[in-house]
Amino acid sequence: MPDPFNQRLSRRAKGATSSAIREILKVANRPDIISFAGGLPAPEYFPIEAMRAAADRVLSTNGRAVLQYAATEGVPELREFIAAQINASEPHAPVTADNVMLTTGSQQSLDLVAKVLIDSGDRIAVENPSYLGALQAFRLFEATYDAVQMDDEGVDPDALRSALARQPKFGYLLPTFQNPTGKTMSAGRRAAVAEAFTENEVPLLEDDPYGAIYFDRPAGPSLRSLAPHLTLGLGTFSKTLAPGLRLGWVVGPASWVARLAQVKQSADLHTSTLSQHIALDVLRSGALEPHLDVLRAVYQERCQAMLDALAEHFPAGSRWTVPTGGMFVWVELPGGVDVAPLLPQIVAEEKVAYVPGAPFHPNGGGLNTMRLNFTHSPAEVVRDGVARLGKALSRALEATTA
Fold it and tell me: Which of 24, 55, 210, 213 has its CA 20 to 30 A from that of 237?
């Protein structure tokens, strides 16, 4: 019998596909699997006690308000706190609470921007490769992509200028510890990129989920601070506090933020009031900075363990990035090996999962690339998993040349 719902799907829904990462995670979450697949923080370092104490305080002192509906833009005190933090680090491009809106994770910000800006067939300038969640969010609204090549410092400025000269609807960049590559723009590169957007008057969506997770020092000025009238900046508490809070924010020109708030009203009315108040209490308590110090040290150790194991165990001719923060290492294998078909076999035989790199390439390619997450597992587990993965990939390469 025909399904009456399927018969009535919109064109947009017919084009929607499942995330390759989310599908892999269904397998990778098994306890017997060493997973380098998802962008998962280390759960053993979640600030559970700080959040429990915060939840007790806000419910005890202001329970009726924190369980009530709230303004679409977010709890005013949290918006003010975020604005103050931004102003402390970038006083040359100040913002107020009117420039900040809380979202249900930064993924919602991507969806809201897509709803507000994208018409069917619009071109978006993106890095190649780029964050899969953004590519999917924009593709749902039938965007097409100008994929801009990258070098070791991120997006290439000359290639970017060529793409922006064609006047895409907007550009989407991750300048700091990029997902999926882990690359970071230098200060000079950031200035050149901001200049390219300013010259062409093209709006910019700057995604920065990982900026606080640096190993030695912060990466540099935000693109928003260099081109504030053109840029919407996205941030999140998912990597610094916990993804289960589902708390992100967007910061930008007040008129743009107000337009996004109009669209958010029909999406979820507002982001969880309770989550916002718990996060605000944790931030006011001063617990975040020492927590971040611990995360930076732990993640740096785990990253180095992965880099050392890659050098020891991966096939000759492999190349990988050396991140200075964030959560990912990007690997390019030699030859014509396609890593996607190998994944089920490697999971079954070696009990190791990764994310194939092809889905991160907006217009195809990258069959011999993969993204590896180093934050989720202890260093010794990272070393073991990379050794198993390297052995399996060496076998596969030997088979292709036999």
Answer: 24
